[in-house]
Amino acid sequence: MSNGLAASRTDVSSPAARHSRLPAWMREPLLHFIVLGAVLFGADHIIAGRTDDPHTIIVDASVDLPARAAFRQEHGRDPNAEELLSLRRKWLDSEVLYREGIAMQLDKGDPAIRARVIFKVRDMIESGLGTPTFDEKTLRDWFEKNRAKYDQPGAPADFDKVGRAVLQDWIDATMAAKREAAVLAMEKRYTVKVTRGDSKVAAIGATPSVSE
Q: Is the pTM of this model over 0.70?
């Protein structure tokens, strides 16, 4: 009798027994899926929030790699643990100063910083464009549309003779058009307002706004 009672108690305390005692709605697989999804979403939100937090600084391989490379170029060897720690300390000091400067808006009104940022964005756009593809028909059509650039007085240009120059000019023009398109795509994120009376600026296509 005691054995049977013990067995009964063991069965009641088992995971399967506890699960069977839960209300039916708590045993639904869909509920488990929703709860798991909520947990994962919450964890992802916390991680993303920490990553985007301007007061969180992450020191990882992206910091070490250029520091190691610069040290190796200067000393002809990799830094040891102590030297690497010093390099990280210098990077961290610079990162803190940079963020504090941005927070205080010290970058505003500085033409040198403005030019540097513009250059970096243009370089980013350039690296993502890739070399345009072409065929002879494309080049010949472009040549005919821009023939005046190659013709000499009394001597019409021969495509077969100026083909290399045409190719380079076509690549330059095509890349310039792609860069301009990329900038215009970015521009769509902004509202451009042009003050009244500045007709030259209004010609860029922005909708003028009345400003007294």
A: no
